[in-house]
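Issue 218. Parser rejects a valid record. Input:
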Amino acid sequence: MTTTSEPTTLEDLVRTTGAIRAAVETVVEGKGDVVRLAVTVLLAEGHVLIEDVPGVGKTMLAKALARATGCSVRRIQFTPDLLPSDVTGVSVYHQERQDFEFKPGAVFANVVVGDEINRASPKTQSALLECMEERQVTVDGTTYLLQPPFIVMATQNPVEMEGTYPLPEAQRDRFMARLSMGYPSAAAEMDMLEHHARREPLDDLRPVSDPQAVRALIATAKTVYAADAVKEYVVALVRATRSSTDLRLGASPRAALHLLRAGKAHAAMDARDHVLPDDIQALALPVLAHRLLPSGDAQVARRSPEDVVSTLLAHVPVPRARASA
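Output the parser choked on:
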């Protein structure tokens, strides 16, 4: 059943996001934390990078979220010969009218599934930069707005696999969060063999929301209060990455903004009208780690960006006062 009424309270938001998560989890089984993070990024108007080995359900998660929210979805299969115009669109000369007509590319959808994004050349990957940050496309000097909600859910194979290109730093920074699917549990894998082998799981997934309702969810999440102490904690974490000797590239100001926005969405899904330091701590790894570049010494010591963020979380002082309105 599709929900068309606009939620205006946190209770409405919790109920609707709960229905979305439950619908997605009928397809992506045993991955409740992953599904919750994806919905959190949607509410925070961000984009998500799903990195893992092939065959663990990365693309299925993106398609299931689009289906559950009733949003339009377009899939882009990134390959070495994919052109930027295939992503953004192209102006085609119309012979009868004797003028140019814009043919929208695959990015014109609510949910854009970028499959194996790191198999395309850096030039094609960069075609998404304006779309992701400014939610618009400029072709031949004309700007076309992308209709909200708009989220890019890109899948990426590990960079050491054959035929992959590393994502540029500027593009990684535009992804609000990176998540990893991981292998399913034995029970979930058995259930997949029992049910998914007989039918396509997406065929039974029915929308539980619609784009208008999702826009209202996003507006409601924005109203969540963040005290100055929480904002100072976010800034302290981000600045700590810039001074860490284990990193040669720390988190950007955009990362701080993404962390706060995600914290608001995380709090809203817990039916709270204020952000706690716990929300920031829960999201610091998926929001910050993929933006950081380890130093040479850290690489030799096998310290990953995730290790560095975990260390900073343990050492950066947490606000003592309760962050409430």
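Fixed in the parser; the record now loads. Confidence is low (pLDDT under 50) at residues 1-5.
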